[in-house]
Amino acid sequence: MAKMSKGKRDSLPSSSFAGPGRSFPVNDRAHAKAAIMDSKYAPNPAAVRAKAEAALHRMPGAHSSFHHGKDINMKDHR
Description:
This protein is mainly α. It has a domain at 21-61. The chain has helices spanning 6-11, 29-38, 45-58; strands at 65-67, 70-72. Helix 2 runs antiparallel to helix 3 (45-58).
């Protein structure tokens, strides 16, 4: 699981979270993937998953995709 200090978490803007009450941080790839995996624990899982996936697509290296909890390298699917 991705780790983050309380100070770093508190310094993130609200837009860096996918869930209500600043839950499910999506500030980097590791946290966005963790949010997708843990979205089932959210009050509105579909909304958290959608925000986390959108955050992943905006990040550098978005050419690979994250689907159903696994990194998929596109060259492996040719």
